[in-house]
User: Fold these one by one.
Assistant:
Number 1:
Amino acid sequence: MSFKDKEKWDTKYDGDSYITGKEPCEWLKSHAEFLIKGGKALDIAAGEGRNSVFAASLGYEVVSMDISEIALKKAQRLANEKNVTITTLSTDLDNSSLPENEYDLVLCFNFLERKLFQEIRKTLKSGGILFYETFSVDYLKYSSFKKEWVLEHNELLKAFNDLRILRYQEVDEEPKAFASLIAQKL
Ligand SMILES: C[S@@+](CC[C@H](N)C(=O)[O-])C[C@H]1O[C@@H](n2cnc3c(N)ncnc32)[C@H](O)[C@@H]1O
């Protein structure tokens, strides 16, 4: 990630309104039955914190990482508004390693950095749950996204095939196209 990219995200997030909203992603909210254990959670590329705050409201001790400090400030503001606590960490996830066996829950929504797949497997504790959802190759029909920013068909299934797959879907409904996974480290 170049300084220019960080600037791009800071500019997008600049302003009082929440560009991605304050409610958690539907895939997370509608599968809250997998979020009953509590413990430590990591929200990768957490943005303005909608998913971090939801996990915190369910009792998780959440660490929210993102490259945009403006986004993380808004995440903290949202946490205050909802009376929950999160820890924000300004991090360039293109060049980061994650601690081994650290998290009971990892969330990654709308972000793709393939080098992190191995780090995610590493940082999950045994029994830990991964929620991953991001744009798929079908999204190229509806956007000017680059190919390297989107998942191939079945890519999440292959990337996490050593985890137990609990739920998986690929959605292609114009103007949206994405893949979603819930998996558990064995
Ligand atoms: C589309 S937003 C998704 C935010 C959040 N996960 C959500 O769904 O609301 C992508 C996020 O990735 C962050 N990001 C982009 N490149 C990054 C990097 N190299 N390291 C950490 N975060 C990065 C951006 O700042 C942005 O918040």
Number 2:
Amino acid sequence: MAVFDQALIAITLDLEMVRHYPKRGMLEWDYEKGNVDAATKRYAVRAAEVVASQGGVIHYFLVGRALEQADVRWLQHIHSLGHPIGNHTYDHVYLLAQSGPELQYRFRRCPWLVEGRTVLELIEENVRWTSRAFQHRLGFPPAGFRAPGGYSSGLRGRGDLQRLLQYSGFDWVSTVYPRHMTSRPGTRPDKQIVADILRAQQPAQPFHYPSGLVELPMCPVSDVAAFRGQRWRLSWMLEVLEKIVEQALEKKMAFVFLGHPAVLLVEDPDLEILTRLCRWIEREPERARLVTLDELARRYRCALAS
Ligand SMILES: [Zn+2]
């Protein structure tokens, strides 16, 4: 494992619609992840402005189909504030799928969209379309790649996918989300669960595959796991995040926070998570730095070389 000289913390927000938000039972988003609604865009832009005003940076990832919308100025505004935006596939496809329909709900309902092609061809197309849409609609290329979902073993044992993403222009990806214990829905995480989330930061540290592709995992606990899965209160989430950051400071670890504006606009309307993360890091200028995933990948390579 690479050893950093300080804690490296990244705030990452995935731009897409999320099932059960803004209301429980809303599942139709599964078929149109990229049809980002006005409230989600407003939250994403506010987050960009608030974090930039505190001297910080957010690394966004975008579902490419959102670039079919008429107005993409919100994304240009976010980018103009200095926040990078990466590729999150066109339809939010499951990279470890075994069949075309398994790639995404949309293809289960509309199998004719994927007939006659291999899973790998479909993934390549979904990644390429997104990068092409970035160039056409935004005028800049995507900054890195994040897998929809997140897999406990990432792309280990999948040299084909590693090569596909390297050929698609990426030298780092974010595909790992390690397993961790969860609390019963609506109950405060107890000591054992918090300890397990702290333990799970270890398998969520940057590493590289035999292909040389760098992996920058998403670190527990994500907003989806905390709020949708375990129905935590915001105060419980803030307590757990503070402990994770304390551990990262103490052990000079990476912490990549994963959030979704579509979720946070309901669970954290006043952007407390983002402002606190910025404040905790600001308090420790020597011991911690807020980074983009591009910088985290650079720092990982430097740490390995030294
Ligand atoms: Zn996603």
Number 3:
Amino acid sequence: MAERNQGVVKALKANSASVCDICDLNFSERYGVEYIEAHHKVPISTYSSAYILSQDDFALLCPNCHRAVHIYMKKDGLEYLEIKKKLRYQCAL
Ligand SMILES: [Zn+2]
Ligand SMILES: [Zn+2]
């Protein structure tokens, strides 16, 4: 399963700009390097082993937002979309 996921993530990164889903940071423009992290929107433990991941199951995030998402997941048990809403609102302030 891990190998199949890597294929999906690789394809997703290849097809997308290095732009954070939450703060819209364009990593390659800002830092001059192509870098972005893939985040599983749904915790892996909730998938059945027969489930085939698609690119929609991932969000591309900059390292800062990615870390913040994981902290919120742990702290408040929020789902990705709730955290995204929360963080996007904070970014806009
Ligand atoms: Zn970000
Ligand atoms: Zn993650």
